[in-house]
Design a protein that fits this description.
This protein is α/β, with parallel strands linked by helices. The protein has 15 helices and 13 strands. It folds into two domains: 216 residues, Rossmann fold (3-Layer(aba) Sandwich), CATH 3.40.50.2000; 188 residues, Glycogen Phosphorylase B (Rossmann fold, 3-Layer(aba) Sandwich), CATH 3.40.50. The strands form two sheets. It has a seven-stranded mixed sheet with strand order 1-3-2-4-5-6-7, sandwiched between helices. The longest helix is centred in the first third of the chain and has 25 residues. It is globular. Bound molecules: uridine-5'-diphosphate. The site of uridine-5'-diphosphate (UDP) has 17 residues, from helix 3, helix 10 and helix 11. One of its GO terms (molecular function) is glycosyltransferase activity. Homodimer. It comes from Candidatus Giovannonibacteria bacterium GW2011_GWA1_44_25.
């Protein structure tokens, strides 16, 4: 089995940002001039499902459009590897009551070690100027990059504000081998990492993608009608992998409380991507299903077939467009692209008070922040009952995304870093 899979991306034209974000467009064009023909190799663990794949799908072709020879490969490990890395992900996001066993550590390192010969071949044939490793799964590939060239960047997308110290200590020697480490948030930087190595880039969304481009409300409503979601009654949704940090059980609890005040409230929970690197989702979904049992106003989407042939991106767009309110009740969140996506559609978002969501939502200005199911229920009731307030928050939310969280800004941030690294 090949250790790496090349991911083909659909071409995109950076010129599309000329009128939408003129400043970022101009600056990126200028920065790209010096980088023409340079080669950047992105490596992550999955081509679909979750935020990293979502970002790379747009970032890689936009870099190409600017004259950089960017390529995207995923690693291709056996399934047990992702069980270990999901555990590691949970530890890094702050799970304290667990640890990696010696066997798990050696399986993790051993699996990536087996990829090193293929990785060296890839480097020899593509000859990148810069390699960007995304997240901890492929992180030990750094062992093959100890020479001065190519330059190496680790891009950590996860929430690292209070990691389990044992997991962090385990990864520390590997992380320190990178030339640069990009975090989403300043407070995610571990104290031991030299300040000059740390850089900060916030994620962004692609406003032209099927998921985010403007969908007429009537079209969105007709898509929801396929699943018998009644658009004449209030609809709240959370779109997220079934993951404990996304707290779907808390969302259902909040919904049950709110339902007492708004009896016709409907809740839609979506987590259909089944990302290959997230084997934990199935177990949690069983619990979610049980908790939702007997309530005909809770709609669950956990697998592709539940979408009745509608492509995932179109379904998500329809739901974020036609629902009344979006909830993202995460307990830990590195950033939360689902929040950005909903804000871009002018929706008020009830977000869990987490570091990543606080980068986007300023409480009561462009959304609201909550810390418990009870508080979430209180805000759901308030916002469902007050259409004007929802509209006001949503309008500011869209402006926030235009200003700070579109792909042109993310590409510009990366080009600046590439200039420093290459
Ligand atoms: N997503 C999707 N379908 C789903 C669930 C999630 O397309 O059923 C997408 C979602 O729209 C977003 C990404 O997956 O673009 C999730 O990114 P986020 O940063 O919110 O969370 P992560 O999964 O990376 O923790």
């Amino acid at each position: 089995m090949a250790s790496f899979v090349k991911i083909a991306v659909s071409p995109q034209n950076f010129g599309r940002y000329k009128t939408l974000t003129p400043k970022a467009y101009k600056l990126a064009r200028t920065a790209a001039k010096k980088l023409r023909g340079k080669k950047v190799l992105h490596i992550n663990s999955t081509a679909a499902g979750g935020g990293v794949a979502e970002l790379l799908k747009s970032q890689v072709p936009l870099e190409q459009s600017l004259g950089i020879k960017s390529r995207w490969f995923t690693i291709n490990p056996p399934a047990y590897f992702f069980k270990i890395t999901k555990k590691m992900h949970n530890l890094l996001q702050g799970k304290l009551s667990d640890s990696l066993s010696a066997k798990e550590k050696s399986a993790y390192l051993g699996t990536v070690k087996k990829m090193l010969p293929d990785f060296r071949k890839l480097i020899d044939s593509f000859k990148p100027n810069l390699v960007i490793i995304h997240d901890p799964q492929p992180l030990p590939l750094i062992e093959a990059l100890t020479a001065k060239k190519p330059s190496s960047i680790l891009r950590i997308h996860i929430e690292l504000s209070a990691p389990n110290p044992t997991a962090m200590e385990f990864l520390r020697p590997l992380i320190q081998k990178f030339n640069t480490v990009i975090f989403t948030n300043k407070i995610y930087k571990p104290l031991w990492l030299a300040a000059k190595k740390a850089k900060f880039v916030m994620p962004a969304i692609d406003p032209f993608s099927q998921k985010n481009k403007k969908m007429p409300l009537t079209e969105a409503e007709s898509i929801l009608a396929l699943y018998n979601i009644n658009i004449d009654k209030p609809v709240v949704s959370q779109i997220s992998r079934f993951d404990p940090w996304k707290n779907p059980m808390g969302v259902i609890n909040a919904y049950y409380i709110a339902k007492k005040s708004i009896p016709d409230l409907q809740l839609v929970l979506v987590g259909v991507m089944e990302a290959a690197d997230d084997p934990e989702a199935k177990g949690l979904f069983k619990k979610v299903k049980k908790h939702a049992e007997g309530d005909p106003d809770i709609f669950l989407f956990s697998k592709k077939s539940d979408l009745l042939g509608v492509p995932n991106a179109i379904f998500i767009n329809a739901l974020q467009t036609a629902n009344d309110l979006v909830i993202q009740k995460s307990i830990r969140e590195g950033f939360g692209l689902t929040v950005t996506e909903a804000m871009w559609k002018g929706k008020a978002v009830v977000g869990g008070k987490t570091e990543g969501i606080m980068l986007q939502i300023k409480n009561n200005k462009n959304g609201v922040l909550v810390s418990s199911p009870e508080e979430a229920a209180e805000k759901l009731i308030k916002l469902i009952k007050d259409r004007k307030l929802r509209g006001r928050l949503g309008k500011v939310a869209r402006k926030t995304v235009k200003k700070k969280f579109l792909m042109s800004r993310l590409v510009l941030d990366h080009l600046k870093l590439y200039t420093l690294s290459i």
